[in-house]
Every structure is written in structure tokens, then in C-alpha cells.
Write a structure and sequence with these properties.
By secondary structure, the protein is α+β, with helices and mostly antiparallel strands. Helices cover 26% and strands 32% of the residues.
Length: 644
Amino acid sequence: MGISTVAVFSDADRDALHVRLADEAVRLGPPPASASYLRIDKIIDACRRTGAEAVHPGYGFLSENISFCRELAREEIIFIGPHPHALEVMGDKIASKQVARKAGVSTIEGHAGVITDQDHAVRIAREIGYPVMLKACAGGGGKGMRIAADDQQCREGFERARGEAQAGFGDDRILIEKYIEDPRHIEIQVVADSYGKTIFLGERECSIQRRHQKIIEEAPSPFLDDETRRKMGEQAVALARAVNYVSAGTVEFIVDRDRNFYFLEMNTRLQVEHPVTEMITGLDLVELMIRIAAGASLALSQEQVRLNGWAMETRIYAEDPQRDFLPSGGRLSEYQPPAATRSVRIDDGVYEGAEVPIHYDPMIAKLITHGADRRQAVTRMREALNEYYIRGIRHNVDFLGALLGNSRFQAGEIDTGFIAREFPRGYHPCRDAASDFDTAVVVAAVIHRSYMDRAARISGQLAGHERRVNDDWSVFTRGRSHMVVVRPMSTECGFQVEYNSRIYTVITDWTLGHPLLRGSINNRPVCFQVERHGLWYRLHADGTRFDAMVMTPHAARLYSLMPSRAAMARRPVLQAPMPGLLVKISVCRGQEVKAGDELAVIEAMKMENILRADQDGTVADIKVELGDRVEVDQVILEFTRTKS
């Protein structure tokens, strides 16, 4: 659009991608958001120093802060978003529900006032009836939200939600409402100009969530019919008009099994998942926001809105799915996203060698795919995830692949409890397999044969004494050996593999050491991420991690005779499961604890994470101090076990 840009950054983001891409960049302060991104005075000072005429507030921090909006107005700086009145009313979950009821929007039962303390929270929850949802009055993005099924969970959830709300939004007010079980989370995108025109751009299904944080979004919803879609859109428009809303915004609903829908909240800002709407409408929502803020009118009527095909977004997070999705900061030693095409879009804020800080939300990228229908959008997403190569930090790419390979997901049978129900034991890439096991065995054998062929070519050779590479191999994985025959084909890039009484034709131009093996097996496209660890090969595809060692049949027979390594005794310690700030130590030396007792709280990436005892014992020593920054696996407490 020809507009010069100014980036603001904290010390933790000094080398961030947005800082590198902007025309100018201004430092705000140290890493904590309260000392940088939430400092209204520093952002306004950055505007003054650079001559910035407008501010786009982004997704979080001050994007829905009424004081920020008003301060900008006093400085005659344009806020690229709604007017102060709409921001104030709809940015407050209590006030927004009151306005929604008056506008004829379906709403859910709840308490319309502020909750003062734990006892008050319990009284209100009992009146409404468990289960209930406790949520921050300001903000969003899953922060400051807890579900409570009884008094104890309500008390604890109130404190955790209030702490997160204060840290993330500077507002610790909490409301309580009835929790609808097994709901779908479906939202309507609205856009309005300053001349009274308001339209909606279809819906987005955001039901795949973890800890109330969306991780997969799609448009349209596989659940809605045309009549429900129209009614939800009309109510969203009515709500926006009730507060004279201007700019882009999202009206969120929860939808029950019978397609009854209830107003949840209105996000008076751009949503993280806006690209799926852009992909099916062909519109650029950010450009619309900028033009509307500059005084332009909407050139599009409701009748002219056309939805084309299907779009899907997955959120790539710096977190460890094998450790209950705890945040995982650190340096991206390798970062190779899939290639962008007309059907594949990557919105990321990182680059190879960049540091992912522990201070903010753990999302590092969004991956978006488009297809003629849902099946094609899912297929392209699975292919793109297989090509998303990240090393140096823990991440959720494999988990996303497992979700997309789930049969219920592929059938569109989803709700907000999907992950907890389908992965009740958590996620492990070697257990929750979504890929074809036989294909992985074949690929491991081809990779090993390629390494052996190279070794034969480069080793010293005498005429008549050339090194011969066997065709017969044993692929050892998951406690079993699998006999495989691998023969190079006459074509330079092919192998013929015999395994499990089948013939596999493998075509690939993979080169040794490259992290991605792309090709086809029996004319079916495949892509595996490849790592070599000593004698072992590690393959990743479709949410599965596949570890294999390939040996000659004779070596495999000898290997089967090797004794198993005895398991090490578990150390009686509490270790940090993630990097973060130690904000609470709940015990003291000599204190007896029972399994399930709270031991400490670590704050990481805007979330408070409670560490609990997994067995009875006595605290022998505290190895850290309150306020310390701890690293993964750092010892926090030492115990002596309670004698039986």
C-alpha cells in the first residue's frame, strides 16, 4: 500500500522478524509486557518520535484497551480499529452480554457482575450450577480462562484466571457463566465502515482447542447449515450495529449439538485466524481495516460476498506436546517452512537462528491451506506439515499431523473437548500413529541402502575387490525386526523394495543428509523428515515419529541377544518441565506433601503452570529462589520419600 511502517519491540524481541522488516524500529523496554508492550506512554512516544499517523494494535496486549484508544485520540493518532465506545462496551465481557441481550442476540446463562473473591465465585457457581467457566472480563486468546466442576476447582481456577488476566491484560476482573458441554466454537467475521454499512464474511470453525487456545481453524464450518449460518451472521451484524461498530471484528458463538447457538464474546480486533477468511473470500482484512480507518467506505455489499472453497489454519507453537504442551522457548537452530504457493500460506514471525522468548505467547507461525473442498484443504495441510522442519525447540508440528490424521477430525466430528477425548493419555508421536507403518519401514530401508551405497563408492577399492552392498536388510523398530529387500532400479532415483509380501516402487531424488525426503511410493506422494542419530534413523510424517535401526540379517540376530538396559531408579526431585519465571514456591523445607499437592508455580509465555507432587514425600531442600528464571529439567525441590 506504500505505507512506511514502524515496529516497536522489547529487549526480548530486539532481533525479531518484524523489527527487521519494518522501515523503522523503536525500543520500548525490558522483556516483561508490563514494562514494554503494555506501556501506553512509550508507544505514544514512539509515534511522536517517528511521526507515525496511525497504530495497528495487532492481536493482543493493547489491541482492546480503551485507555490506549483514548490516549491515541488525544494525540490525534488514528487507532486502526473500532471507536472508543464500541471498544469499551464489546471489549468487556459483562457489558457485551448485556448489549447482546438488548440487540436480540442469543446469550448464555451467567452472572452479569464482577466476582470479588473466591467465596463469591463459589456462591455464584453454585447458583448457576456446575460446570462453570471462569474467564477474564478483558482480553482473550484463552488467557485467564478456567473450567470448574466443583468448589475446589472454582477457588483455584479463580486465582489462576485472575493472575493470568492481570499479567496479560492489566485487568484482573473475572466473570462466571454456565459451561456448555461438548460445544462447538464458531465465530462470525464482521466488517463495518463509518457510513453505516456492516457485512459478515461467513464463519470460522475454531473448535479444536487446547486449554481454550485455538490450534486449528477452518472456514466454512463442517457443521453449520445455510439457515443457521444466516441467522448467526444476521445476529452478529445486529450486535455490531448496536454499538456503531467500525472496522473488522469477530462475534464468537458456542453451538450445541442441536445447532442452538449462544453469544460468547466479541473480539474487537483482528483475529489470529483471519487468514482462513481471507483465503475463501479473496479479501485482505488488514487492508480493509486500514482503508476504513482512513475514511474509506466498504465497496462490497452483503449480496456480493462470495465464499470460495475451503481454508484451514494450524498454529505452530513452541511447546512440548509430550510434556502436557508446556511452553518451550529457545533458539531455532534449523527452521525450514514449506514452500508458499497459491494454496499454501505461511504467516510466521521467526527465522533460522532466531530466539523464541519465554515471555510471550508461544505461537511462532500460522500455516494456512486452501482447497476446493474440506478433504483437499486437509490433504494439503498434512503435506505442508510434513515439510515443516523445525529444530532447536520443542514444537507441536507432529501433534498437528496426528490431529489431521484422526478419522473423527476428517469426518468433521469435532467439538472443544476433542483433544481431551481423543488423546486422553496425552500425545506421544511413537504411540499416536497417523502414518502408514509399512511405508515408514520401507523408507528407513531405502535411506540406509543409500548410505551404504555411498560408503561403497567412496571407500578405497582395488580392481576385483569392490565392496558389495547387500540387498537384504533387517529394519529393527518398536521391539521387532522386519525383513526387507532393497534393490536399486535402473533409473538413478529409484528403488524396488520387497516387504511383507508386497512390492514397493520408491522414486526420490533425496540426497544424503537432507532433512526432507520427498518422492513417491507406488505413485503416491510422500514426504518424511529425516534425522540420523548414530546407528538409528528418526523419521517424522503425519504426526508419527518412527525410530528404526537397519542392520544386516546376521547383525539383527546378534542384536536380539543383547540384554536390555535396566531402568534407572527415579530421582526424588521436582524438575522444571519448561523454561520460565518461578512466581510461587508453595512449600517449605521439612514439609510433608501428598500426591497432588501444589508445589510451585512457573509463569511462561503468559500462562501460569502449577507443578504438583506425583507422590507422597517430605521436602528435603529447595534448590531455587522465588523470582528465579529456571530452565527445562532444572531441579527445583528435592524430597525424601515417605516410608511405607
